[in-house]
Amino acid sequence: MIKDATSVEIDETIQKAHKAFLMYRNLGGKEKAQLLRKIADEIEALGNELISTASKESNLPEARLTGERGRTTGQLRLFASLVEEGSWVEASIDTAIPDRQPLPKPDIRKMLIPMGTIVVFGASNFPLAFSTAGGDTASALAAGCTVVVKAHPAHPETSNLVAQAIWNALEKCNLPREIFGHLHGKSADVGKNLVLHPLVKAVAFTGSFHGGKALFDLANQRKNPIPVFAEMGSINPVILLPDALKHRSESIATQFAGSITLGAGQFCTKPGILIGVENADLENFIAVLSQQITNTKPATMLYEGIAFNYDCQRRILSAQNGVKVEAEASTPADKGQGLPTLASVYATEFLKNPTLHEEVFGAFALIVKCKHQGEIQQVIQSLAGQLTATVIGEKEELLNSKDLVDALREVVGRIVFNGVPTGVEVCYSMQHGGVFPATTDSRFTSVGTGAIKRFVRPVAFQNFPDELLPSELQASNPLNIWRLVNGEWGKV
Amino acid sequence: MIKDATSVEIDETIQKAHKAFLMYRNLGGKEKAQLLRKIADEIEALGNELISTASKESNLPEARLTGERGRTTGQLRLFASLVEEGSWVEASIDTAIPDRQPLPKPDIRKMLIPMGTIVVFGASNFPLAFSTAGGDTASALAAGCTVVVKAHPAHPETSNLVAQAIWNALEKCNLPREIFGHLHGKSADVGKNLVLHPLVKAVAFTGSFHGGKALFDLANQRKNPIPVFAEMGSINPVILLPDALKHRSESIATQFAGSITLGAGQFCTKPGILIGVENADLENFIAVLSQQITNTKPATMLYEGIAFNYDCQRRILSAQNGVKVEAEASTPADKGQGLPTLASVYATEFLKNPTLHEEVFGAFALIVKCKHQGEIQQVIQSLAGQLTATVIGEKEELLNSKDLVDALREVVGRIVFNGVPTGVEVCYSMQHGGVFPATTDSRFTSVGTGAIKRFVRPVAFQNFPDELLPSELQASNPLNIWRLVNGEWGKV
């Protein structure tokens, strides 16, 4: 029986995590890498029990969860490599010029240091990769922060298994168990008390706008405001350029049918609106896409509440003025399943009606039909901040689309060309974070190595004795990392 | 006659700056560098008129303002070099692996792009270096943002002169005048309307906690919250270790007398509290410091309101339980002047009384006497966030002070050894930004090249045609900048 953490338990867990931070913050990159790799090993050692538990709790198929486990352990190991190599701390050194006129220049050395204890909210749609030992936890631990996870109530047992794997790893690395804390909470009070705890230094959250914005507001109202990195949702606009539709509307339709219905449409990067100029090619595209949506079997969603919300939102959008339902899956949806649905609307209506700009979390997409290219620009400029945008086009028309790309750049974190936005690569160059309200802070990413930057801040040391400097900043560069020395990059 | 900007003028100025951004954002590093250098030239071309106007408006001596002008033009030219060189955009490239199993790896390229129109609030205590063409404006223009400055009402004519220099530079560079906007406003409504304007993307402010926090709260309550970089004040603790006081208490006292009274104590990095263990050496230090404070002539402060506030705060702190006034300048303060004052208190009182933790903006410092080293740690742990901390010690005792440095690291942005915190070097490694409430965002700096990072956000391009990528991300690296390619740094 899973119980909500009491306020006493919350306080104790945070206090312990803070105390553990005072030790963990000084751990070297090698030791942190060892821990991250050990966590990955321990997650793998859970074997099929983890996959079957996660599948039972999330209704996601085992094959998908096996892939997601690979993503989870891969991301732990990527952060291990990152901190083992060590250059991520952005070490910067200005050496002294004692005889400078009119005043001597001091020796100043700066690097990133961990913030403290981080609260991570598990996400329902990625029970492994964005939950207990997901990207937020991995990047915070890599940064040198201690972590307290609030398990998502939709998969508490999965979260317990992973938490135990983390504790096993800590024990095997001879590190204090309190570096990682794990709490449950169905009540919003648990989250609230975590975010308001004075020793918490930052918050990572993936979920709804409602939830993320509430945490953001709470954090800003603290006596000492703290950053909240909330990834909250997106309709991920797709621009369909005319020549592409003329030459390959069928293959594009197939590609997007897959992306819209992948994982029952339960991805933050699901393409939610597809924007094109009305003509026969677009109609052909809609026809092929409709056929594929009709043929897609409804899938069971993460939990009943999400399926219920999906059905409500799907119906609300479909009932808006001017909206035409182009296709629904021919197999009826059972209880807890989401019915794949495609609708269309003219841009003039879309521009007028804010409801049509809202995310429908599930296998739903809306085609926005424009009278001409200029209307596409208008639609883009009407959009709120988004995680991604996609442009589908032939090479020639892409090259004529600089204005369009410039306009998209202002609202999104990532622009995809001739691909689908789902499938967020975990790598050095990923930007998974868009302009508000897609996320609370467009300056950071929650996927890829850049995610570590959310949990650190710079500190400068002026005229320090070399022995007292962190090794990253010592004169001999003992860690052999890349550093900016008097403005020049080098391993010096 | 200087008039407050009306809400219509505010809206027009922001609208124009936003429109100018749509052009300016695409300017190359070389063109931006040319503009920044031209602004520096035009400021110098103002000659002594600028210095005499600033001196008349701020009561700061001409010699100080001449130095500050050098800092202002130097920082414009440093940002020019930074953007001309170009590597600051943190270009990161992950190349595609089309045959990767189970899924191909896409090509992903990320870099920093400018946010949009930035509102800069001029600071009263640096009429040149933190005002109209100060570090905030220089870094925002360098980032590719357009800027609207609200002039500080204490030096409107100085601000007008510098604004005209910027417009002259824009004209000479054949760039739209609207890249830079300049407004006046004594009323808080002007600032409020600027921060709430939907097209404003970030705010930079240097001033009081009251003012900065109000802007921060406003910005967070917007429909689309925006970052506020407010640098709000600090008491900049100084730890005096026993051996240093034993060996050189007189020279340390002389050094700190200078730092406390520099510019009438009107620096955000003025040392406000000096913490030491009570013994004969500390008493000797206090005696020497007192003598120097007594001998310091009161200086005219920036404006009468600041002098009035200083006198109130100085008296309030001096009247607190257990506080002993050690010294006051022997020359009485005229109207508008601040009376240099040194006080002392025991740590037990300091720990109990939050009033003693408040910044007194002016030539005031408080000695905190501890019974033993452990009490120093307690005092440090009781402190709110600070811009800087300073440790004065002999080498041996410094090396035994790791715990102390670790504790200080948690509350400050910069730690100085055997120096004074005043004098913030403009360089690559400076961190001028501390934990709240010293600033609203400890992750950023307002001095040094890092200041440019406040006005940018990353965007990723996936599977883009090379010709459509910004030159920073093109395959041939046409700008020859440092880039992270598949996780490895290089000029490739």
Give a structural overview.
The structure is a homodimer of 492-residue chains. Chain A has 492 residues and is α/β, with parallel strands linked by helices. Chain A folds into 2 domains: 7-232 and 443-484, Aldehyde Dehydrogenase, Chain A, domain 1, CATH 3.40.605; 238-417, Aldehyde Dehydrogenase, Chain A, domain 2 (3-Layer(aba) Sandwich). Chain A is built from 15 helices and 19 strands. Chain A has a 7-stranded mixed β-sheet, sandwiched between helices. Chain A has a 5-stranded mixed β-sheet with strand order 17-2-1-18-19, with no helix packed on it. In chain A, strand 18 (483-485) and strand 19 (488-490) form a beta hairpin. Chain A starts with 6 loop residues before the first helix and ends with a strand. In chain A, 59% of the residues are buried. Chains A and B meet through helix 4, strand 1, strand 2, helix 8 and helix 14 of A and helix 4, strand 1, strand 2, helix 8 and helix 14 of B. Strand 16 (412-417) of chain A pairs parallel with strand 17 (456-462) of chain B, so a sheet runs across the interface.
Descriptors for this entry?
homodimer; 492 residues; 2 domains; seven-stranded mixed beta sheet; five-stranded mixed beta sheet; 40% helix; 18% strand
Low-confidence regions of chain A:
none
Distance between the termini of chain A: 56 Å
CATH topology of the largest domain in chain A: Aldehyde Dehydrogenase, Chain A, domain 1
The 3D shape of chain A can be described as globular
The level-1 CATH class of the largest domain in chain A: Alpha Beta
Nearest-angstrom radius of gyration of chain A? 24 Å
CATH superfamily of the largest domain in chain A: Aldehyde Dehydrogenase, Chain A, domain 1
Number of helices of chain A: 15
Main sheet strand line-up of chain A: 11-13-14-9-8-15-16
Number of strands of chain A: 19
The mean pLDDT of chain A is 97
Keywords (chains A, B): Oxidoreductase
Organism (chains A, B): Thermoflexibacter ruber
GO molecular function (chains A, B): oxidoreductase activity, acting on the aldehyde or oxo group of donors, NAD or NADP as acceptor
Domain Aldehyde dehydrogenase (chains A, B): 2-434
